[in-house]
Amino acid sequence: MLFEGNLSVNSTRDKVWNFLYTPEKAVSCLPGFKDVRKEGDSYRVTGKTGIGFLKGDYKANFRYSEVQQPSKVTLLATGSGMGGTMELKAEVNLEGDGPVNLRWSSEVKVGGSLASVGARVVQGAAQRIIEDLFQCVKEKVERT
């Protein structure tokens, strides 16, 4: 599944970058976020969420890749939970400075129970989660 979007953030590029590149801040926008821990060159995230009738805990590992401060970063993640698995590659671009155009594209692959729920349900839920995540980033950055 491929997702793309953008939004305008009324802040400086440095503030948006610092939020996204500080794992504790960035993951605070994940649904049901509980904890994040550094493990080597990656981060371990736990939380609780639901897609359709599947609800439960999730665990994910992510790392930053292709870092071009302060304009581009790629996130690579793998996770499991709710009887399924997930792989994610997301590219985030920051353009302009005050306001900043935050543009993202992400490719998500799901397996297990998540895949059996149905593409429309999973795609709709994933789209909502991603849009909510970036809306949360916007709101938190603009408050600081």
Automatic annotation (TrEMBL):
SUPFAM superfamilies: Bet v1-like. InterPro entries: CO_DH_gsu, START-like_dom_sf. Transmembrane segments: none annotated. The lineage of its organism: Archaea, Thermoproteota, Thermoprotei, Sulfolobales, Sulfolobaceae. It comes from the Archaea. This is Carbon monoxide dehydrogenase.
